[in-house]
Amino acid sequence: MPLGAQVRSKADLAKQLLQSKSAETQLSVDDLASMKISSETFSAKSGVTNVYFQQYIGDIPVHGAILNAHVTKNDELLTYGNRFVQMPNGEKKGAELPKLTPEQALHAALAALNIRENGLLVQKSAGNGPLRETIFDKGLVALEDIKVQLVYQPVDNHKIGVRLAWQVEIKPPMARIGGWLGMDAATGELLDKNNYVVHCDFGVANEADCHHEHTAEAPHQTYFDLGVDFLNPSKSEEKPFSLLIGNEYKVYPEPVESPNHTAPVPPADGRVVITDPASSASPFGWHDTNGVAGAEFTTTQGNNVHAYTDTDANNTPMQAQAPTVVPT
Q1: I need a surface site. Which of 21, 158, 216, 302 has the fewest CB within 10 A?
Q2: Does the predicted model carry a pTM greater than 0.70?
Q3: Domains of the chain, earliest start first
Q4: How far, in whole angstroms, is CA 204 from its chain's centroid?
């Protein structure tokens, strides 16, 4: 059959194109047969379709194992990236079936995070499918409900082999951490973790001396030598917040990195008003989250960011200081 004949979608075509280059891509027959579409997007500007495949072993995904393929409007493979885990002889390490329950995995994850358990862990739902996805009530140990499910966790620096693991997604009360942990499904050993919370330190106000960093582990020790008391804004020079019209935002414009990198520096206001900055990726504006015309929020919350003042570090907006917008 000619390449591309009777192909129902670009994803199917991408699979055929990858199969035709199997010697180059090092994808096995099992890899191609078991991988599943994670997402598919199309660029009207370039005419390229971007297809992302998730590696699976049986019905369980391999964490972080994604293959991206990019197909041109002429049905040619433009480029690809292979982050699948090599599985020589189907190599899997550890247990074939979980020996720990989801609750035991959660106990192990909390211990790994040095989080003290306050009260019982209440199970809200339990899945019977291959992933055995289980939801626990947030209780006093998290800000949101906790999800636990089965994955295959890559080992040996994501190169060869996997272990069956419980993936625990948790957002603890402290603001410095929040992400997932991969706990060995047989032993409860911590195999890997990822912190979604990024801490940003902009250093001092003098731009020449500002050596900031963006990491998921560094402490957030922000210092502004500006003579402004940010913890007690009433003691600082305050200007009334003016309501903007339509999709207008008063911001530090790109490429300004922070208030420390603009002129005039705070407490003077170096912001400017921009209009309709949302791109085609957000056709209904930044405050839309359901893909239907009409904003869901009138605060600085939307489909990508929820920005708010939180001087008491409890991960809750301070309503008295929440900026208000009037989206169209």
Answers
A1: 21
A2: no
A3: 10-84 (3.10.450.490), 102-195 (no CATH)
A4: 29
